[in-house]
Design a protein that fits this description.
The complex is a heterodimer of chains A (119) and B (115).
Chain A: E1 3-5, E2 10-14, E3 19-21, E4 24-26, E5 32-39, E6 46-52, E7 60-61, E8 64-69, E9 74-79, E10 88-96, E11 108-109, E12 113-118
Parallel strand pairs in A: 2-12
Antiparallel strand pairs in A: 1-4, 3-9, 5-6, 5-10, 7-8, 8-9, 10-11, 10-12
Chain B: E1 5-7, E2 10-13, E3 19-24, E4 31-38, E5 42-50, E6 53-56, E7 65-71, E8 74-79, E9 88-95, E10 105-106, E11 110-114
Parallel strand pairs in B: 2-11
Antiparallel strand pairs in B: 1-3, 3-8, 4-5, 4-9, 5-6, 7-8, 9-10, 9-11
The chains are: A mainly beta (119), B mainly beta (115).
Chain lengths: 119, 115
C-alpha cells in the first residue's frame, strides 16, 4: 500500500518570504500523480498543484512550485512571496495512475502541515 | 457551477441514532468519493463510485456504514447506529472521470458530532 508522509506538523513564514513544505511517499508503482491540497479554516479542500510522475519537469502554478525527486520519492511544495491568505493546512496526496493499482481511485493523504504566515 | 453540495453542514446526534449525510456532485461528473477526516487518522477514503456504481468500499469502517448513489446527482452516506468514534468531518468529492489526472473537487464537508 502507498503511504504519504509529511514530517513537518507546523511551519511558519513571514509575509513575502519563501517557505518549503516537505513530503515523501512510498510506492512500488511507476505511474502516479502527486498533489498538494490546501485546507483553510473554512475546511474547504482546494487543489494547489499537481505533478505527473512521468514528467520530469517540476509543476508550477503562479507562486507555487514543486520539487519532484522521483528516485528519492520526494515531493516538496515551495510557496514564494507568501501572503496572509496562504495560511492553511497543506496536504500532500498520492493517486495511482494504474487502472489495476490498489489505490487507483483514491487519494492517499499525508497528515498535513499547518502553515502560519506572519505579517 | 455551485460546486459539490453537502448537507447538513453540521450534525449533532446521540449515540445509537441513525445519521444520513447527503451529497450532490458537480453536474456532469461521473465519479464521486466519500472521505472522512479525523485528528487521529487524517483524511481517508471511505468509498467511491463511478457512474453510480460502487468501485472501492474497502475504506468503509464496518457494517454500520453504508453508502448509496441512486442517480448521477445524489449520494448518501448512512451510519446506523452511530457511535462517538464516528465523530469526524465527512467530505464528498467529485471528478469528471475516474482517472488519476482529473481533479477531485471537494464539498465543504459535514462536521458530525456523536454524543
Amino acid at each position: 500500500a502507498q503511504t504519504v508522509t509529511q514530517s513537518q506538523p507546523e511551519m511558519s513564514v513571514q509575509e513575502a518570504e519563501t517557505v518549503t513544505l516537505s513530503c515523501t511517499y512510498d510506492t512500488s508503482e511507476s505511474d502516479y500523480y502527486l498533489f498538494w491540497y490546501k485546507q483553510p479554516p473554512s475546511r474547504q479542500m482546494i487543489l494547489v498543484i499537481r505533478q505527473e510522475a512521468y514528467k520530469q519537469q517540476n509543476a508550477t502554478e503562479n507562486r507555487f512550485s514543486v520539487n519532484f525527486q522521483k528516485a528519492a520519492k520526494s515531493f516538496s511544495l515551495k510557496i514564494s512571496d507568501s501572503q496572509l491568505g496562504d495560511a492553511a493546512m497543506y496536504f500532500c496526496a498520492y493517486r495511482s495512475a494504474s487502472a489495476g493499482g490498489t489505490s487507483y481511485g483514491k487519494l492517499t493523504f499525508g497528515q498535513g502541515t499547518i502553515l502560519t504566515v506572519h505579517p | 457551477d455551485a460546486g459539490v453540495i453537502q448537507s447538513p453542514r453540521h450534525e449533532v446526534t446521540e449515540m445509537g441514532q441513525e445519521v444520513t449525510l447527503r451529497c450532490k456532485p458537480i453536474s456532469g461528473h461521473n465519479s464521486l468519493f466519500w472521505y472522512r477526516q479525523t485528528m487521529m487518522r487524517g483524511l481517508e477514503l471511505l468509498i467511491y463510485f463511478n457512474n453510480n456504481v460502487p468501485i472501492d468500499d474497502s475504506g468503509m469502517p464496518e457494517d454500520r456504514f453504508s453508502a448509496k448513489m441512486p442517480n448521477a446527482s445524489f449520494s448518501t452516506l448512512k451510519i446506523q447506529p452511530s457511535e462517538p468514534r464516528d465523530s469526524a468531518v465527512y467530505f464528498c468529492a467529485s471528478s469528471l472521470r475516474d482517472t488519476a489526472y482529473n481533479e477531485q473537487f471537494f464539498g465543504p464537508g459535514t462536521r458530525l458530532t456523536v454524543l
